[in-house]
Write a structure and sequence with these properties.
Strand content: 15-25%
Largest sheet: 3 strands, antiparallel
Distance between the termini: 50 Å
Strand order of the largest sheet: 1-2-3
Structural class: alpha+beta
Radius of gyration: 28 Å
Length: 171
């Protein structure tokens, strides 16, 4: 929660740096599928994850986090967004056109879990090619020469012979 820093009242002088008023606990933050509750630094446990099905990660029967969420909602607080974003997505896999699902902030193909990484590699290679095409011809030729230096040990030796180091090794 962002707090606005306001100068404190004094006898004609402004206090610098401005002093923020202390936060009022509990602080309730909306997350997908529930609420993150901060009960303050003097509470143990301080942070509670209260889901929409009225369960808390602390496991206590009289959980102060669940009670704080109940008071927050009765006072007209905004309900947490539904957890439907974590279920199957409707977009097909761009490689095999099969169904996908959301996993850890990325999508996963249901027929082959490596399709996500194949897709990402293809996109990264396309972005690199686009970047290389935007370079001047001499800079692009240099990058192509550096790339060929790591194809084999002989090519690397030839490259290093043509481009000697300009500094002392170990210095």
């Amino acid at each position: 929660m962002l707090q606005i820093l306001t100068p404190t009242k004094s006898t004609g002088r402004t206090v610098w740096p401005p002093v923020a008023s202390p936060p009022h606990y509990p602080i309730i933050m909306l997350i997908t599928g529930g609420y993150q509750v901060d009960l303050g630094p003097r509470s143990t446990p301080r942070f509670h994850l209260v889901l929409k099905n009225h369960t808390c990660n602390c496991g206590a029967t009289n959980c102060r986090g669940k009670h704080a969420v109940k008071v927050y909602l009765k006072a007209g607080g905004k309900p947490a967004p539904d957890g439907s974003a974590l279920k199957y997505t409707t977009r097909p896999c761009p490689i095999c056109n099969d169904h996908t699902r959301a996993v850890d902030g990325r999508w996963e193909c249901l027929s082959n879990s490596t399709h996500y990484f194949q897709y990402r590699v293809t996109r990264l290679r396309a972005a690199r090619e686009k970047w290389l095409m935007s370079l001047s011809p001499d800079v692009a030729a240099y990058h192509a020469e550096v790339l060929t230096a790591f194809v084999s040990a002989e090519a690397r030796t030839t490259f290093l012979a043509e481009h000697p180091l300009t500094y002392a090794a170990g210095a």
